[in-house]
Write a structure and sequence with these properties.
The complex is a heterodimer.
Chain A: H1 6-25, H2 28-31, H3 36-40, H4 42-55, H5 64-78, H6 84-109, H7 111-116, H8 118-248, H9 254-289, E1 297-300, H10 301-319, E2 326-330, E3 337-340, H11 342-366, E4 375-383, E5 386-393, H12 400-403, H13 423-435, E6 438-444, E7 448-456
Parallel strand pairs in A: 2-4
Antiparallel strand pairs in A: 1-3, 4-5, 5-7, 6-7
Helix pairs in contact in A: 1-4, 1-5, 5-6, 6-8, 8-9, 8-10, 8-11, 9-11, 10-11, 11-13
Chain B: E1 2-7, H1 12-20, H2 22-26, E2 30-35, H3 38-47, E3 54-58, H4 66-76, E4 84-89, H5 94-102, E5 107-110, H6 115-125
Parallel strand pairs in B: 1-2, 1-3, 3-4, 4-5
Helix pairs in contact in B: 3-4
């Protein structure tokens, strides 16, 4: 009885060893998880196998066990035929298994033949072992190469995943920013619309403010001609009474009558003249306050200068009764009519004149001595077919660093509430954009200022 | 006869006064002279020393104001008889009135001039 013959136990141990080796070498727990229960119980199974063989006196080395084990082993590896090292292992073990199975059968069923050829079998087994070892080395290399490739792939995939995540993150950021920018753009557009509306309102309020400056001057300027209208009409009534008296006399004085009639006619002319003066002032005031774009029309710049110089002077004079200034005009009669928007240019002139009077008024307040004579001189001349209007004062003057800013909107040196800071910026816009002219300043602090308007003829 | 100097920058004031006082002028009660500015008035006064009895001056004139003219009159023409000065202004504010009185004005009139009142004042002076 050869129960549990060393060859039988060897067969089992060899099979168990081969399975364990394959399990570890090919990483079967992850590649063939379905086989794991078998691997876990492999010693139990082989133990039971050994037990059964002992109980029923079966020689485990009779070839059948080798064949079964070989088939199971190859079948198991065949499951992984897509895994190159697995195929190489099959190739590696195939000669050995064949020899092993055939050898086992022959040894068991044809012992004589086996013994006769034992040398051949032994050397064949030796060769197959070398073959096995060589191919296992190759399989190992293949496995390592595959692992490396897999690792590289994994790294690549990881990088791709990171890039993808970054990309998504970026896309999210871009979308977020775009939304923000769109919102800001809409807000800005809204603000721009509001600003434009505010600007229009400011320009209108600046017009109204300058109208306010004008009001006192206008009242004064209208009152004077009205006084004349009233006085001359009253006097005319007296003259008519006198004339009637004279005519009723038995001895009429034709010389006196003629004189009375001449005076009457003269008075009516004066009434007409002063009435016209008043209505032209009212017309100018209405023009000044009118909103919207005015039309260009041939305008007597000299008359405009004279009219607004008086209005500006009396405007300031009405506010500050103690104020007095010498103002004069040096007007070039060859200037003729210039095509311009009268209400716009008159606003510019009014602003320049008011500023000039304000400057001399400020200097008068500062100067303690009586020697200072506040003077504003307006001159016009024709140069290179351009009309040049110069407004010169001997007021406080403008420091050089301030000169750069005076045409900027909202810049003012006046106390809060007194100036809008829009006067000169509007003037600049009217002259440069509205009329294609220039507005320049020459000034020295403490000595006076000169504003020069140039209008193309 | 009373010699009156009227100082006003409005040229038509001359015609107006000449007509308003035509009877007085014809009857040789008043003699009127006119100046269009303070400077002109001073020049006239310098040439007609002690002749002018009454000066009617506007306050608000370009160049030399009525107040300055008044100051000059009171400092430069002190030789008796010193002229009566009436100041005329469109702005009948108490400040100007007080200033006029301080500078030595005899009276203060507001525009528009009431010629009936003015004539009465002149007759009272005469």
């Amino acid at each position: 009885m050869n129960t549990s013959s060393p060859e039988g136990i060897g067969t089992i141990l060899l099979a168990a060893g081969a399975f364990q080796f394959a399990r570890r070498f090919l990483d079967l727990p992850t590649r063939l998880p379905g086989w794991e229960p078998f691997f876990k119980r492999i010693w139990v199974i082989f133990g039971v196998l050994l037990g059964l063989s002992a109980l029923f006196s079966i020689d485990l080395s009779n070839g059948w066990v080798a064949l079964a084990m070989s088939l199971v082993f190859v079948f198991m590896l065949w499951q992984l035929k897509h895994f190159q090292p697995s195929r190489t292992v099959i190739l590696a073990v195939a000669p050995f298994l064949l020899l092993w199975v055939v050898g086992s059968y022959l040894e068991h069923y044809a012992p004589k033949f086996y013994q006769a050829n034992e040398g051949f079998f032994d050397s064949s087994i030796g060769f197959s072992a070398i073959w096995l070892g060589t191919f296992l080395v190759i399989a190992n290399r293949q496995k390592k190469a595959l692992v490396k490739i897999e690792q590289e792939r994994a790294i690549e995939a990881e990088q791709r995943r990171i890039i993808e995540a970054k990309k998504q993150e970026l896309e999210y950021l871009v979308a977020e920013r775009t939304a923000k920018i769109t919102l800001q753009k809409e807000e800005l557009e809204q603000t721009l619309i509001e600003l434009k509306a505010t600007q229009a309102q400011l320009i209108q309020s600046e017009k109204m403010a300058s109208l306010g400056e004008l009001t006192a001057g206008i009242a004064h300027e209208i009152q004077n001609p009205l006084n004349f209208v009233n006085n001359f009409s009253e006097v005319s009534i007296e003259l008519i009474d006198e004339l009637a008296e004279e005519q009723a006399k038995p001895e009429r004085d034709p010389e006196l009558e003629a004189e009375l009639l001449t005076d009457l006619k003269q008075n009516l002319q004066k009434i007409n003249h002063h009435g016209g003066r008043a209505s032209s002032i009212v017309k100018g005031m209405l023009q000044h306050s009118r909103a919207g774009a005015g039309q260009r029309e041939p305008t007597d710049v000299n008359a405009l200068c004279e009219e607004y110089l008086r209005l500006a002077y009396h405007g300031l004079r009405a506010k500050d009764k103690s104020f007095n200034a010498i103002f004069s005009t040096e007007l070039d009669p060859s200037l003729g009519l210039i095509s311009l928007v009268p209400q716009d240019v008159s606003r510019v002139l009014l602003n320049l004149f008011t500023n000039a009077f304000y400057a001399v008024q400020q200097r008068q307040k500062q100067e303690k001595t009586h020697g200072y004579q506040p003077t504003v001189i307006v001159s016009t001349r024709c140069a290179n077919s351009e009309a040049v209007i110069t407004v010169a004062d001997n007021g406080t003057g403008i420091a050089e660093d301030v000169q750069q800013k005076i045409f900027q909107p909202f810049f003012t040196t006046k106390p809060t509430g007194e100036g809008t800071g829009l006067g000169l910026s509007l003037a600049y816009e009217i002259i440069t954009k509205g009329h294609g002219g220039t507005l320049e300043v020459e000034s020295k602090a403490g000595e006076g200022s000169k504003f020069i308007v140039t209008l193309p003829g | 006869m009373m010699k009156i100097l009227v100082v006003d920058d409005e040229l038509d004031v001359k015609d107006l006064f000449l007509q308003r006082f035509r009877r007085e002028i014809r009857n040789a009660e008043f003699q009127l002279a006119f100046a269009n500015s303070g400077e002109e008035a001073l020049k006239y006064l310098a040439g007609h020393q002690s002749e002018v009895i009454l000066i009617l001056s506007d306050i608000n004139m370009p160049g030399m104001s009525g107040f300055e003219l008044l100051r000059h009159i009171r400092t430069d023409f002190q030789a008796p008889p010193s002229p009566v000065v009436m100041m005329i202004t469109a702005y009948g504010d108490p400040d100007s009135q007080q200033q006029a009185v301080e500078l030595g004005a005899n009276d203060f009139l507001t525009k528009p001039l009431d010629f009936t009142v003015l004539k009465q004042k002149l007759h009272d002076l005469a």
